[in-house]
Amino acid sequence: MSQAHSPLLAVENVRVHFPVRKGFLRRVVAAVQAVDGVSFSITKGRTLGIVGESGCGKTTLGRSVLRLLEPTSGSVRFDGRNILSLGGASLRALRRRMQIVFQDPYGSLNPRLTVRAILEEGLIIHNMGNAAARRERMVRSLQRTGMPLEALERYPHEFSGGQRQRIAIARALVLEPEFLVLDEPISALDVSIQAQVINLLVELRTQLGLTYLFISHDLSIVEYVADDVAVMYLGRIVERAPAKSLYAAPLHPYTLALFSAVPSVHPQQRRRRIVLTGDVPSPSRPPSGCRFHPRCPLAEKVCREIDPPEVVLDGRSFHCHVAAREVEQSGGNLEAASARMTILMSQLTQAVAADERVSTPAFLR
Question: What angle do CA 321, 325, 329 make, to 5 degrees?
């Protein structure tokens, strides 16, 4: 593979399991499989969006990529180097090139420090220039995020939520990194402010040639920001594809259900609503076979017994026995297979809902 097209970040079979301890001796009796065998790569200058419902492992995955959480196993290669094998000065030098913007702009900034101290902290840790050079970097970072220079001498509580998130972005940019993990960077902001922050992130990516791992549960935002999208469910990626291809023809049943909930103002673009039943299984006791089968209306015997292998087709991948069969029967026509599965899922979920209404006593409806 040529250097120009080699991935900046390559994650291979990463697992993050948290031990469950019980008893007086605190013995390990189980493990919460927050992330279980995830692999993906991101080419320099591109954005990978990670979507999925709360608790699917998105944030844990993002933090493990930066070793803010230690992966249980697997490898994370940044620019060809496995960061899981680094330590000390080598890891610190590499971390300057990899930064994160957290979800909560109120909790991620130290309220006891001025903006100057917040921005300068990383520069001091990495010995980046003298006082004058550090100030120049801080001023440039604030200007890039649209914040006034007077903000340097003020405290976080003096700013609005949107301004705080701009400061958090400025803190990440002041070290001039190449890669950013954006962990739901707008979910804590008002809708009127979200567009400003998103447009800022898009502009910065273009101007500075940044690479993003964008984590969000807002599918519309991910469609706007991301070049590629990976869908997570119960600690695993169940489908990954270029954004345009995935939104046009999702194949995995969970992706179909997730995307059907996205509102559309265009009547011709509205999807059939697919309402899933049941609860998400516990990540400490994941089901056998396909992890989605307890909630999937299309689940068959093979889904309950055998973990579906990865199917790679036209630059996209998914894990589903039923979708693989539909794609094969449609002659590789992804749009036709997606439409067929959407109709089947919509009909089956509506039938289940009707049965539940009939079986429910009138006084409980």
Answer: 175
pLDDT tens readout for residues 341-365: 988 888 887 655 445 444 444 444 4
Alpha-carbon gap, residue 151 to 275, rounded angstroms: 47
- The residue range of the domain holding 157 is 3-226
Give the amino acid at 61.
L
CB 214 within 8 A of CB 50: yes
| Cα–Cα–Cα angle for 229, 210, 236, rounded to 5 degrees | 30
Q: What is the pLDDT of residues 122-147, one digit of tens each?
A: 999 999 989 999 999 999 999 999 99
Q: Does the pLDDT of residue 209 top 60, yes or no?
A: yes
| Most confident region among 24-33, 53-62, 346-355 by mean pLDDT | 53-62
Where does the chain have alpha helices with state H? 58-65, 88-95, 115-125, 131-144, 161-173, 191-208, 219-225, 243-248, 253-260, 301-305, 321-329, 334-359
Residue 238 covered by a domain: no
With beta carbons less than 8 A apart as the criterion, state whether 105 and 170 touch: no
Please check whether residue 346 is in contact with residue 295, taking contact to mean a CB–CB distance below 8 angstroms. no
- Look at residue 342 and tell me if it is in a domain: yes
Q: How far apart are CA 296 and CA 254, in angstroms?
A: 8
- From 160, 191, 226, give the residue that closes a domain: 226
User: 318 forms bridges with which residues in the sheet?
Assistant: 239, 311
Q: Is 189 exposed, middle or buried (0-12, 13-18, 19+ CB in 10 A)?
A: buried
Predicted TM-score (pTM) of this structure? 0.90
Above 90 in pLDDT, residue 208?
yes
Note the pLDDT tens digit of each residue in 291-326: 999 999 999 999 999 999 999 998 899 999 999 999
Are 327 and 242 in contact by the 8 Å Cβ rule? The answer is no
In a domain? residue 250: yes
Token duo for residue 299: 């689940």
Residue 190, judged by CB atoms within 10 A of its CB (0-12, 13-18, 19+), counts as exposed
User: CA torsion sign, 242 to 247 to 253 to 257?
Assistant: positive
| 80 lies in the same domain as 182 | yes
- Same domain, residue pair 125 and 266: no
